[in-house]
């Protein structure tokens, strides 16, 4: 009992949300042992996620209660730089009942199901302004409306940097391939040209030497004489 008193005084002293959460956790744990009351909300084992701007993200939250639920009220808040913006509000009358939506936000879709104790949201087309803490809150009439909440942190990452990396890899590999092919082509071309030229040069050398040395002989040697003859005339 002493520990409960100390947490109680700490809460009233500081009113910190972390301490409140702690106290809530202690209460839930203490009561959970005897299963007197048992509503718990959870945003997952790792209550945070990274997502690219422009994408659509799942903000998870589940609840569980060993004593069952009655008029389970829940809502979602986004901590927008200190001021809480309500994103969703609903109520589940009893286990398995479809939630009665009381309020929602334009970029938010409820994707949970009371059959799986799931009160998750889908947040569409996120921007960098959507980064931050999302609080899933629930209150069960069956346990005298005790408050429960869990926080999920969304980290919005720059799409461009990630895309840049993949683009760089693609560009580098494609360029590498293209350059490789070009080099191979150039080598082949150089070899072909080299051998062709070698042959050609031999012919030319023959022509030049023959024409240079002896015009009359060249003139007598048929078709090639015409080529040599025109520039001269
Ligand atoms: C993501 O953010 C970058 C930088 O602000 C912006 O240029 C880009 O258009 C954004 N992408 C989407 C899909 O909104
Ligand atoms: C957040 O709040 C602080 C103080 O109230 C203010 O200086 C700052 O500009 C705000 N940031 C945004 C992104 O609104
Ligand atoms: C998200 O963005 C797409 C494309 O810009 C748009 O068609 C869609 O309606 C948006 N969805 C919401 C819920 O705003
Ligand atoms: C909650 O429902 C959504 C949508 O069906 C699903 O993606 C998510 O995995 C569910 N979460 C849990 C913890 O079951
Ligand atoms: C539960 O939360 C509401 C606000 O949502 C607050 O007014 C009320 O005092 C809280 N109750 C307890 C027992 O903390």
TrEMBL record:
KW Signal (keyword) present: yes
Subcellular location as annotated: Membrane
GO MF term list: sodium channel regulator activity; transmembrane transporter binding
GO biological process: cardiac muscle cell action potential involved in contraction; regulation of ventricular cardiac muscle cell membrane repolarization
Protein name: Sodium channel subunit beta-4-like
Any single Gene Ontology cellular-component annotation: voltage-gated sodium channel complex
The organism's place on the tree of life at top rank: Eukaryota
Keyword Protein transport: no
UniProt feature, compositional bias: Polar residues: 208-219
Entry keyword set: Disulfide bond, Glycoprotein, Immunoglobulin domain, Membrane, Signal, Transmembrane, Transmembrane helix
Principal subcellular localization: membrane
TM spans (from-to): 20-39, 169-197
Residue intervals of the Ig-like domain: 39-153
PROSITE patterns (UniProt xref): IG_LIKE
Region named Disordered: 208-233
Membrane topology: Single-pass type I membrane protein
């Amino acid at each position: 009992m002493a520990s409960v008193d100390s947490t109680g005084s700490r809460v009233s002293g500081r009113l910190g949300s972390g301490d409140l959460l702690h106290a809530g956790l202690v209460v839930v744990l203490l009561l959970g042992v005897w299963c007197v009351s048992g509503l718990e909300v959870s945003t997952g084992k790792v209550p945070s996620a990274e997502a690219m701007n422009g994408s659509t993200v799942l903000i998870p939250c589940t609840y569980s209660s060993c004593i069952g639920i009655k008029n389970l009220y829940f809502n979602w808040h986004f901590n927008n730089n200190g001021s809480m913006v309500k994103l969703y509000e609903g109520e589940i009358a009893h286990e398995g009942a479809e939630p009665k939506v009381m309020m929602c936000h334009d970029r938010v879709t409820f994707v949970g199901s009371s059959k799986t104790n799931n009160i998750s949201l889908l947040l569409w087309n996120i921007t960098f302004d959507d980064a931050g803490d999302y609080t899933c809150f629930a209150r069960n009439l069956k346990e005298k409306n005790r408050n429960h909440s869990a926080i999920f942190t969304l980290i919005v990452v720059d799409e461009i940097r990630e895309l840049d990396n993949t683009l760089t890899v693609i560009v580098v590999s494609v360029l590498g391939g293209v350059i490789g092919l070009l080099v191979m082509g150039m080598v082949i071309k150089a070899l072909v040209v080299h051998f062709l030229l070698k042959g050609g040069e031999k012919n030319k050398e023959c022509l030049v030497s023959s024409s240079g040395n002896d015009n009359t002989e060249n003139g007598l040697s048929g078709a090639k004489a015409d080529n040599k003859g025109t520039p001269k005339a």
